[in-house]
Amino acid sequence: MSRIVILTEGKSNPTDAKTATGILRYRLDEVVAVLDSTQVGKTAGQVLGVGGSVPFVASLAGVDADTLLIGIAPAGGGLPVSWRSLLRQAIERRMEIVSGLHFFIGDDPEFRELASKYRVRIYDVRKPPPGISVSRNIARSARCFRVHTVGHDCSVGKMVTGLELARELCRRGRDAEFLATGQTGIMIAGKGLPIDAVVSDFVAGATEKLVLDAQHREIVVVEGQGTLVHPLYSGVTLGLLHGCAPQAMVMCYDPLRREIKYGNMPIPPLGELIDLYERVASYIAPSEVVGVAANTAALSAAEAEAELRRVQAEVGLPATDVVRFGCGPLADAVLAARERLRESAGRSGAGAAAS
Amino acid sequence: MSRIVILTEGKSNPTDAKTATGILRYRLDEVVAVLDSTQVGKTAGQVLGVGGSVPFVASLAGVDADTLLIGIAPAGGGLPVSWRSLLRQAIERRMEIVSGLHFFIGDDPEFRELASKYRVRIYDVRKPPPGISVSRNIARSARCFRVHTVGHDCSVGKMVTGLELARELCRRGRDAEFLATGQTGIMIAGKGLPIDAVVSDFVAGATEKLVLDAQHREIVVVEGQGTLVHPLYSGVTLGLLHGCAPQAMVMCYDPLRREIKYGNMPIPPLGELIDLYERVASYIAPSEVVGVAANTAALSAAEAEAELRRVQAEVGLPATDVVRFGCGPLADAVLAARERLRESAGRSGAGAAAS
Question: What is the DSSP code (8-state) at residue A194?
Answer without folding.
Answer: -
